[in-house]
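[[Local backbone shapes]]
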Amino acid sequence: MKQYIVTGMTCAACSARVEKAVSNVAGVESCSVSLLTNSMGVEGTASDSAIIDAVVHAGYGASVKSTGYDKSIQSNEASVDVLKDRETPLLKKRLIFSVVLLLPLLYISMGHMMWDWPLPSFFDGNHVAMGLVQLLLSALIMVINQKFFVSGFKSLFHRAPNMDTLVALGAASAFVYSTWALFAMTGAVVAGDEEAVIRFMHEFYFETAATILTLITVGKMLEARSKGKTTDALKGLMNLAPKTAVILLDGKETIVPVEQVKKGDIFVVRPGENIPVDAIVIEGTSAVNESALTGESVPVDKAAGDKVSAATLNQSGFIKCEALRVGEDTTLSQIIQMVSDAAATKAPIAKIADRVSGVFVPAVISIAVVTFFVWLFAGEEVGIALTRAVAVLVISCPCALGLATPVAIMVGNGMGAKNGILFKTAASLEAAGRVQIVALDKTGTITAGEPRVTDILPADGATESELLKAALSLEKKSEHPLAKAVTLYAEEKNIAADEISDFIALPGNGLSATLNGKALFAGNLSFIETKAAVSKALRKGAENFAGNGKTPLFFAHDGKLLGIIAVADIIKEDSPHAIKDLQEMGLRVVMLTGDNERTARAIGREAGVDEVIAGVLPDGKETAIRSLKEKGKVCMVGDGINDAPALTRANIGVAIGAGTDVAIDAADIVLMKSRLSDVPAAIRLSRATLRNIHQNLFLAFFYNVIGIPLAAGVFIKLFGWQLNPTFGAAAMSLSSFCVVTNALRLNFFKIHNTKPKESALKNKEKKMTKTLSIEGMMCAHCENHVKQALEALDGVESAAVSHEKKTAVVTLKDGAAVSEDDFKKAIEGAGYEYKSVK
């Protein structure tokens, strides 16, 4: 998407005009204009000059926007400069001068004439002088606020009237009529017609024209200030990057601008300094605060071989790094580009307001004209009819309609970025809140994606340390992922490996080697049965492991079985809570995996998903998503290359940030923290943003639907209600301000569900617990095994297991009853000995 800066837009009618003009350019496939950021995103093959010419021909200005975070600090500063709030200071100056002139005008026109406030002696009986002073003061205010007239009439001449056109027509009508009344009064003074003089004096509306302009300026200033706050998140991201780096040139440290850092350069970072570009640590250790990118405040330990990102803070150690990605390729640059692109796009819901805005101003001008003639034909004086027509012009506000969606999208997008949730487009932010089904890839999404040892089951006559020692000696020679899991676990237990010889990897079976002159084997059950006798207890244990989605690895030495080590891709700590959170939001959660049915169902049961679809290949996942879409809108969450087709097929694709670039490119939403709990957070934020948009649209439509008839005098006969143009201008000023302020409330929205339900808190103490006595548990993995077996029982809410105390404290669900026999079967089925229950 190519982005442009558009100048001269003041309301939704302007942005609609620009969008229509550019969309008609040959080669333009799509165009979206953001009134909020004064930017335009265009996709297609049209040239820059053709697009800019179309904007200029429509009556506005345009220039090519520097891309993203760009390749230099200068362009970064330029991007920040584009978002800088220049309107508020200018509007503030205009407002101050307008108020200074308005106060004496109101004193003369209303204070003296309505409440007989004193005036200088030279005004005594000189009605013409009073009129001329009012004309002069109001004319000065009109000159100060000439932008309304220049923009308004320019748009009118281009047959694309906007909000400024309404203000200009209203103020100009009041001023011109009042000027005519002043000349008519002057003629009456010359003629000596005192009655006509008094009548014409009451036809002055100079203060109305001046007050309209001043109040609209107040509203514009408040609106500009609030709009400036909506881009704070984007400006904050742009300001994160350091401006210099300390690189090593010929062994010497040299400070250079960060744009001069090239891929492959070696640089150093001291404690308290920001990392300038994406890199890999080649020397040193440190704790790096990555909150700027992920929102996670806990520092992450980094050592040689670990990757670090630009704009993150080195907190403790001195590290030497090699630059990997620089300029617009850094993670920070891509985040900024995503947020910026999302701001430049439009949500589908905005099309409603766009369609209305396109015809709104011409319709209001028509209503004002009709209002004038209806009251004139009804017998009212020209002044009264004109007052009501002007009230119609100044109370109508297309700006509120135009801002209703983009301000909420910008604030919601910024909130997401601050929390490590990146929405690529405004449409994805809207669509996420409408999903009904969430499909989760298993590996790397629900699970950690790396096998871990979960259980140790020594055979009779063997100890856990003997089993681990033999396993480490054999598995450390293997490159298999399961071997790495065993090696890591044994090393964490400070087990020392013995030297082996004659190592052979037997594909599809296992491993073999010679230890102390005797054969050492590892592998699956069918392989190990040919090398050693396997007892019924160990067979049953292996079946239980497999039933729970784990892979049992058998080890034998010198014809004697040493035991089983169970390995599994463990579920991430936050996955069950995230899945429960999604279900509480009324969503159906489905797990997709290429695993076999038995393993998949065991993991699905532990994670708590509603449905498991197992044995699917990459194209099978895409087919599964296609099938799920027949039941409702689907959100697919994945992290690998094999997830890309499914991410593309789903209504919304969510990529885990630590996943592959292919998955991230295919997704609509990227989670920087790589944790599943951000999925319900993203959906929750989307729903809150949608609610805010609906509120804003309601405010904008309701305001105009009620305000325009009130200004036209429709309710005078019914309720006696009528509206002075001055109050209409005040209402118009506040309408846009209210819409923007309402959108800013999203900054206080809590996207994570951290508050437990009150019912859960009340019932917590009422839960029934039972304490079971169990023999045979020896480690934390045994505890986990028993815990899973007990929590799989119907009626059990949770189980706290301790191998040291040899107990399991089971908490039952409300009104549930579990028999002692059920407890006994579950524990013995897990391979342990049940003793008693209290």
